[in-house]
Structure formats: C-alpha cells, structure tokens
Design a protein that fits this description.
The strands form two sheets. A three-stranded antiparallel sheet has the order 1-5-4. Strands 2-3 form a two-stranded antiparallel sheet. It has 14 helices and five strands. The chain is mostly helical. Residues 1-29 have low confidence and may be disordered. The chain is elongated. It has helices at residues 12-23, 32-47, 52-74, 92-105, 118-130, 139-157, 218-230, 240-248, 253-267, 272-300, 305-310, 353-369, 392-405, 411-431; strands spanning 3-6, 106-107, 110-111, 376-379, 386-389. 51% of the residues lie in helices and 4% in strands. It folds into two domains: 1-23 and 181-437, Vanadium-containing Chloroperoxidase, domain 2, CATH 1.10.606; 31-159, no CATH class. The longest helix has 29 residues, at 272-300.
Length: 437
C-alpha cells in the first residue's frame, strides 16, 4: 500500500469558517445531485445529528429517490423502485432537487425524514428551483412532479420497515460477551438497526460472518496481543502517522464518504445521470452494510478490547495477560479537533461497523468505475488532516488497520466486516442498476 499523507495545521478561525461553509445553503454548482447530497448531508448529520448507522438509512432513502427521479427521465438503467412516466425533455435537475427535498421534509399527508427542518430547507429548495432553466417551457414543472413522485414512492416503501423498533436482548454477562465500556459505560443509541428491512439483499441473516475467534484459540491470542500493544493509549510501537489515521477515520463515516463521492463525481467528470447512479449505489450499499453489521453484532455480542484486556484473567487463555488499567488510544485524554471526545464505541466489537461500510463503499466504487486505480484525497473533520490514496483498496486497507490502531477492535472484526461489505457490493452488482437493453 503506497500512501501519501499530508498533515495540515489549521488555525481556529479557518476551522470556524470551514464549519460555516459546511452548513451554508450556498454550494458549489456541480449538478443538482451533488449539490443536494451536500444539503442532505448537512440535514442528516449536522442538523439532525444522526449517528453513522442511522444516517446510513437516511442517505440511502434520499439518494435512491434522487436516482429514480433522474433515471425516470433518462431511462438508461433499471429503476430502484417503480418510476413515474416522463418526457425526455423534462428537467433532471428539478427532478433530483425535488426528490431529495421531499424525502427530507415529506408531504402534508406523508412525513419525511425531518419534517421539523421544513422552515430551513424550504427556502433553499425554492431558491434552487427558481435558478434552474425552464427549457422547453414546462420542463421544470414536469421535473418537480417526477421528483415528488419518486420521493413519495420511497417514503411509502420504507414505512414500517423496522426503523426505531425494539432492541435485541443482551446476552448474560460472561467472558467474551459485550458489556458497556469505560469511561462512560454508554449503551448503543440505535441497537435496532440490525432488524431494519434491508434495501438490497433479501435478508440481513444472509450476511452472517464467520464470527469472532474462540477465546482460547491462537488466532484470538494474536489479535489480543496486537491490539493490546499497538492500540494502547501509551503505545510505543504505534507511529504518529498511524495515530493520525486512527483519528482521521473516526470522523462521521457517512458524511466523510459522501464527501469522497462528491469529489469523485467532479474529478471523474460524471454527468447528472451517472452521479445519481453512483450516489444511489454507494448509499444503498452503505445502508445494508449497517443493517447487516448490526444484525451480526447482536448475534455474536463479542466484547471490546478494553474489556477483554482488563478481564483477560477470566478468558481461560494462558497466553493472554490481563492489564486492569489498560486504555485504548480512543480515550477522552486524546486530543481531537471536534467533539465528541474519543471513546470505545458503545456496541459490540464484531464485526466492525466502519469496515462493513468501507468494504461496501470501496467494492461498489470498484464496480462502478471498473477499476481500483483512481486516486482519492479526503479531509477529516475529526483529525483536521488530509490523507491521500492511490487506489480505492488503499482506503479499505487503512481503515482495517486504523480500527486496531485506535484500540477499539480486534483485527478479525475488521477483516470480517470488510467481507460482509463486499458481499453487499457483489449482490448489488448482480441484481441492481443494470443497463436497459
């Protein structure tokens, strides 16, 4: 893996300006798909504050409706959900804009994701639609009608899909079983994710991983000793670059990857049709990655490294040595640029949520572009550094490592998470978004 990493020290005033730009309704005009992906990201992540696994579902609903709106006019690929009738001259920009807006805020008779944001998003929508050309006359209004139709179809389709449903039952406390971790001993804010109806695959259970290693196995011992050493808060073997990578990837994963998708849409000169398909494919894959991952997490309910290392005297393995005061790099004492402070995430270890999603994202990027060799540069709001990668696969390799360097995952959880994500990308490639012949 050949990585070129550039670290940037940013003055506080510049950071403040960047944050203002993040939430500003003024966006660079690439096309309506990329513009409204940024607006949706702000609505989902910044304003609503949805954590990554919950936001994955929201991103998927928005971007799939946008795709169907644009594709209803273009008609070159299979739709995701049934599409309304259209004319070839109808405005794709108006259709994409309206589909995103309506999934976010809904209709008077059909709630959207964030109806409380109507007063904020309505002026942005009105200004954006007013700025679109109406050529030929009526094409803009027709595009609006198409976007409303695909948004309504999406919102109707996802009713009663298991979102915000009951939580899975925790297993009784025992060696190897997850329990809330120090320092805050928090519970999972969205344990229901794994019971949501998937967007692509027939069932979450078909994504089941091989599971964590047995506590007395040599493989578990190897994982244990690795994370104990390199993931420790006081590690002497973790390099500064590895520390930066670990913190870099703790930025909100779905906001960060959608920034990458917007960058690729511009750098690869995608038109509005291809952009709509890219964003839909990626975010639908990410949603199923979160659903499949959380279903698997609560199937295995495996403990986190901080618990395993502190309680190693209970695991029956003579080759693991307990350290009752061990702390991971992801500890509140580790400085970060933006809240919240770093802690072990409040849900089971296996598989890694980040690598489930990154595996789905990266393999879908490879399938979409037909190559792995496209360079990517990304900025993290968590580390305030920029990292550059020569290939898509370099991203996945680094994320797998980074979660070990952070001290929050065993390597097996990271590797099997990436496999789960790849299963989704493979299923998507075979069953969705086929060209119309």
């Amino acid at each position: 893996m050949n990585l070129q990493v550039k670290k940037i020290s940013i003055p506080p005033l510049v950071i403040a300006a960047a944050l203002v730009a993040l939430v500003s309704p003024t966006v660079a005009r690439a096309d309506a798909v990329t513009d409204w992906n940024l607006i949706a990201s702000n609505a989902i992540v910044v304003t609503a504050g949805q954590p990554p696994p919950v936001s994955a579902l929201s991103f998927a609903m928005v971007q799939a409706a946008v795709y169907d709106a644009v594709n209803a006019i273009d008609r070159t690929h299979q739709p995701y959900l049934p599409e309304p009738p259209s004319n070839p001259t109808d405005s794709k920009e108006a259709a994409a804009t309206t589909a995103a807006f309506r999934v976010l805020v809904g209709f008077p008779d059909l709630p959207g994701l964030f109806p409380a944001q109507l007063s904020t998003l309505q002026p942005q929508y009105d200004a954006y639609i007013a700025g679109l050309p109406d050529n030929p006359p009526g094409s803009r209004a027709n595009g609006v009608a198409i976007g409303e139709a695909t948004a309504r179809t999406m919102l109707t389709n996802r009713q009663n899909d298991g979102r915000f449903g009951p939580s899975p039952t925790p297993y009784p406390a025992a060696p190897g079983i997850w329990r809330p971790t120090p320092p805050n001993f928090a519970n999972d804010p969205a344990p229901w994710i794994g019971n949501v109806r998937p967007f692509l695959v027939p069932s979450a259970e078909m994504l089941r991983t091989d599971g964590p290693n047995a506590l007395t196995s040599a493989a578990y011992t190897e994982d244990f000793n690795e994370v104990k050493e390199v993931g420790s808060l006081t590690s002497t073997t973790r390099t500064p670059d590895q520390t930066d990578a670990a913190i870099f990837w703790q930025d909100h994963a779905h906001a960060l990857f959608n920034r990458i998708f917007r960058t690729l849409a511009v750098s690869q000169q995608l038109d509005i049709v291809d952009s709509a398909r890219l964003f839909a494919m990626e975010n639908l894959a990410g949603a199923d990655a979160s659903i499949g991952c959380w279903n698997d997490k609560y199937y295995w309910q495996f403990w986190r490294p901080i618990t395993a290392i502190r309680e190693a005297d209970t695991d029956g393995n003579p080759d693991t040595q307990a350290d009752p005061t061990w702390l991971p790099l992801f500890d509140p004492s580790t400085a970060v640029s933006h809240p919240p402070l770093l802690v072990t995430p409040p849900f089971p270890d296996h598989p890694s949520g980040h690598t489930c999603n990154t595996g789905a994202f990266v393999h879908t990027l490879q399938n979409f572009f037909g190559t792995d060799k496209i360079a990517v540069t990304a900025f993290s709001n968590k580390s305030c550094t920029t990292r550059s990668f020569e290939r898509f696969s370099d991203i996945l390799s680094e994320v797998i490592d980074a979660r070990v360097w952070a001290g929050i995952h065993f390597r097996t959880a990271d590797v099997q998470g990436a496999v789960l994500g790849n299963k989704i990308a493979h299923y998507l490639k075979k069953h969705y978004f086929q060209p119309v012949r």
